[in-house]
Amino acid sequence: MIPCPHSAETVEYGQIQGTIDNFQEINVQNQLINAPASVLAPSDVDIPLQLKGISMDQLGFLRIHDIQPVMQ
Fold first, then answer.
1. Quick one: DSSP state of residue 52?
2. pTM for the complete prediction?
3. Cα angle at 64 between 58 and 70, to 5 degrees?
4. pLDDT, tens digit, for every residue of 10-25?
5. 11 vs 32, 49, 69, CA distance in Å?
6. Which CATH number is 7-69 given?
7. Domain ranges of the chain
8. Torsional sign, CA 30, 27, 61, 56
């Protein structure tokens, strides 16, 4: 097995307004998070998120992108 390195990711989240065919993302916010290294890959890692300015019933989408290894 190959270990997974410590990494940093951007979480983007917000609301969706409109219909499935014609929607807009509104109140979009970004948050930088860090995931710890893991000995085994694939791996499940729990990372608590505090989404500021939005409640779970308002949340329309959540994306994780810009995943980069963190040099130690």
1. T
2. 0.76
3. 140
4. 999 999 999 989 999 9
5. 6, 9, 15
6. 2.60.40.1620
7. 7-69
8. positive
